[in-house]
């Protein structure tokens, strides 16, 4: 992306010129404690994405077990294949809780009343960068999850099997790492099309409700400013030309969509009203200018995981712009 990216004054509603370095920002001394805590989670996030990307599932073993219920050994083979995969799904679920905790840590700092949200983003760039990486991870995780039906198939088979076990023996699942109670909680998580995004949306809404002493504008302005930052960097040729790879473009697009969705869940009127601090038409137009294969998941996230898109206050133009082709 180049060492420093300057955001144009005219695109930031409540701040002057400042630089936001998503690539190289390092923590200052006051940021260090929070930065190190969040950095551990972000390091784990890379491992989670690798494991999810390589998740192949137990489709063949499950198919054989369903087709040949009476053949000796077939059920055992399917169960042996599924159990370690469900254990892996549990690590993803557990990680979502740690990601939620990291988000709340960053929001505590970036929305405090000691400075304006723009000043926080300008002065605490390492934490702003971590916030962006959390959003990038979240959108990437959900894209991979939605494109892998094996996750739902494996987990459904696991739940059916432990349910049968418990009919014959009520304590049969006691020795399983994922018992019936935990499986029910995980089922709610994986049943959502975008589970990580829902986790963060719920966490952001809860952060606002749990901290009534912090004006809601502190949070919404932080989110809208981040959206503007990403949009300007992507639309300005001299800035975009400094990106070192196309992946940096996708990074900014994911972050932009992520903060839009969080804003829409937190702001009482949402992101799509005319008075929104986010230029939604411009953001959607920017997304649709990209290769469809790289942004369809992001457009779907706006279509199906936002809270206010279908409100009467949303213009027909915006609704039409987000209609699937």
Instruction: Specify the structural class.
Output: mainly alpha
User: Strand-residue fraction?
Assistant: under 5%
Q: Poorly predicted ranges (pLDDT <50, ≥5 residues)?
A: 1-17
Assign a percent range to the helix content.
55-70%
| Mean pLDDT level | 87
Q: What's the β-strand tally?
A: 2
Can you write the helix and strand succession as a string? EEHHHHHHHHHHHHHH
Assembly state (oligomeric):
single chain
- The gyration radius over C-alpha positions equals 22 Å
Number of helices: 14
The biggest beta sheet reads: 2 strands, antiparallel
* General form: globular
First-to-last CA distance: 32 Å
Q: Strand arrangement, largest sheet?
A: 1-2
Overview of this protein structure:
The protein starts with 5 loop residues before the first strand and ends with a helix. Helix 3 packs parallel to helix 8 and helix 11 packs parallel to helix 13. By secondary structure, it is mainly alpha-helical. It is globular and about 65 Å long. The chain has a two-stranded antiparallel sheet with strand order 1-2. The N terminus is likely disordered.
What brief labels describe this structure?
mainly alpha, globular, 325 residues
Question: Briefly, what is this?
Answer:
This protein is an all-alpha fold and 325 residues long. 67% of the residues lie in helices and 1% in strands.
Which helices and strands, and how do they pair?
Layout: E1 6-7, E2 18-19, H1 32-53, H2 59-67, H3 74-110, H4 117-123, H5 125-146, H6 150-168, H7 180-191, H8 195-210, H9 216-235, H10 237-240, H11 246-266, H12 280-288, H13 292-305, H14 316-321
Antiparallel strand pairs: 1-2
Helix pairs in contact: 1-3, 1-5, 2-3, 3-5, 3-6, 3-8, 4-9, 5-8, 5-11, 6-7, 8-11, 9-11, 11-13
């Amino acid at each position: 992306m180049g060492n420093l990216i300057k955001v144009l004054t005219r695109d930031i509603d409540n701040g002057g010129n400042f630089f936001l370095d998503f690539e190289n920002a390092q923590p200052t001394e006051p940021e260090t404690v929070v930065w190190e805590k969040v950095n551990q989670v972000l390091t784990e996030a890379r491992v989670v994405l690798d494991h999810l990307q390589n998740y192949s599932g137990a489709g063949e073993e499950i198919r054989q077990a369903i087709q040949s219920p009476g053949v000796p050994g077939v059920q055992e083979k399917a169960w042996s294949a599924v159990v370690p995969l469900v254990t892996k799904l549990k690590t993803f679920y557990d990680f979502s809780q740690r990601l939620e905790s990291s988000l709340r840590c960053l929001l505590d700092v970036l929305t405090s009343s000691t400075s304006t949200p723009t000043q926080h983003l300008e002065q605490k760039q390492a934490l702003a960068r971590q916030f962006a990486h959390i959003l990038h991870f979240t959108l990437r995780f959900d894209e991979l999850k939605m494109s892998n039906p094996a996750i739902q198939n494996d987990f459904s088979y696991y739940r059916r099997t432990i349910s049968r076990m418990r009919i014959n023996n009520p304590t049969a699942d006691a020795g399983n790492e994922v018992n019936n109670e935990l499986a029910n909680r995980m089922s709610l998580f994986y049943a959502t099309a975008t589970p990580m995004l829902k986790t963060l949306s719920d966490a952001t809404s809860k952060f606002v409700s749990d901290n009534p002493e912090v004006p809601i504008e502190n949070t919404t302005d932080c989110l809208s400013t981040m959206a503007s930052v990403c949009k300007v960097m992507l639309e300005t040729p001299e800035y975009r030309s400094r990106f070192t790879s196309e992946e940096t473009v996708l990074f900014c697009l994911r972050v932009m969509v992520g903060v839009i969705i969080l804003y829409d869940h937190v702001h009482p009127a949402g992101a799509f009203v005319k008075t929104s601090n986010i230029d939604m038409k411009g953001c959607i137009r920017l997304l649709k200018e990209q290769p469809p294969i790289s942004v369809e998941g992001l457009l779907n996230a706006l279509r199906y995981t936002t809270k206010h898109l279908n409100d009467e206050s949303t213009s027909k133009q915006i609704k039409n712009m987000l209609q699937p082709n």
